[in-house]
Automatic annotation (TrEMBL):
GO terms for molecular function: DNA binding. It holds the Pfam family Phage_int_SAM_5. The lineage of its organism: Bacteria, Pseudomonadati, Bacteroidota, Cytophagia, Cytophagales. Residues 110-219 form the Phage integrase SAM-like domain. This is Site-specific integrase. GO terms for biological process: DNA integration; DNA recombination. The keyword rRNA processing does not apply. The keyword Membrane does not apply. Residues 24-97 form the Arm DNA-binding domain. It comes from the Bacteria. SUPFAM superfamilies: DNA breaking-rejoining enzymes.
Length: 297
């Protein structure tokens, strides 16, 4: 837990229907996010000291036992917070309450959760292209290599914090796999971050995560000065036999088609005859519009 994050405990009462008695509750607040829990204690409303957040005692009525229970609960909650802090784990009011009540629930692990996300994308093949799904698999592989480098099989989603993101970024920028001669560049690393961030945001929407680990990590794109092919270079490409390699020739033809039509290479490679039609004069070929990375009529 970072020093800038707040942590506070407050006891308060909720009057019962008889307007005589009240239940004592504890409010746990971490970084302005609150949860409340019943302490198990009930007292008379007029015996509650709101300023001191404890029960009053008189000659006739002693609430020492109630106050001792409240102090014990306060110490237990504080110990849970300190333990999480010592272990370097993300801290939330809900997690503290769940640990205390024994209702922590099912644990979610990053690689498992990421892989489930990929499976969902595959089932939504009409919304996500094969290229998108392939890119998520690439990011998964980088995450897996990074986690293995830490001598772990997986990591809990709740343990994914800013330090994890920074360490992953360093891994991306320095790791050289057996398939590559050098580590990836900044923009390539940023694409991995954007996919991981999308998966983590999904975890936040599903209330598995309480905060965004990327809040303190800024993704900076390096400006790439792109150069354009000249007409002479395009003509050379058209005439080159490419060693009579049919696969290379096919890629070359799709690339040239993209140049002349303005289609993205990925869309052009998926083009079918029903996506192409002549104009009303029968002289020119035109492609139908592309919507959401899909060719449509």
């Amino acid at each position: 837990m970072k020093s800038k994050e707040s942590f506070s405990l407050k006891f308060f009462i909720i009057p019962q229907p008889d307007n005589i008695h009240a239940k004592i509750f504890l409010r746990i607040t971490v970084d302005r996010k609150k949860v409340e829990m019943y302490t198990g204690s009930t007292i008379r409303i007029d015996m509650w000291n709101e300023a001191a957040q404890q029960a009053k005692s008189t000659k006739k009525t002693s609430n020492t036992g109630v106050n001792e229970d409240l102090l014990k609960l306060k110490n237990q909650i504080t110990d849970i917070k300190r333990r999480l802090q010592y272990e370097g784990k993300p801290i939330s009011s809900k997690l503290i309450k769940d640990i205390h009540t024994g209702a922590v629930g099912e644990k979610h692990f990053l690689l498992e959760y990421f892989n489930d996300h990929i499976s969902q994308l595959e089932k939504l093949s009409k919304e996500y292209s094969k290229g998108t799904i392939k890119n998520y698999r690439v990011t998964y592989k980088h995450l897996q290599n990074f986690i293995i480098s830490k001598r772990l099989k997986d990591i809990e989603l709740l343990q994914v914090d800013t330090k994890f993101i920074n360490d992953f970024d360093f891994h991306l920028m320095t790791y050289i796999s057996s398939d590559n001669k050098s580590a990836m560049d900044r923009n390539s690393a940023n694409r991995q971050h954007k996919r991981l961030k999308a998966v983590l945001h999904k975890g936040m929407k599903e209330e598995i995560l309480d905060k965004d680990p990327y809040n303190s990590f800024k993704i900076k794109d390096n400006t790439v000065n792109r150069t354009f092919l000249s007409e002479e270079e395009i003509e050379l490409l058209k005439k080159h036999d490419l060693g009579n390699n049919l696969s290379l020739q096919k890629v070359r033809d799709i690339f040239l088609f993209s140049i002349y039509t303005g289609l993205r290479f990925g869309d052009a490679s998926q083009l079918k005859t029903n996506h192409v039609s002549k104009d009303n004069k029968g002289q020119y070929w035109t492609c139908n519009k592309i919507v959401d990375n899909k060719l449509s009529n």
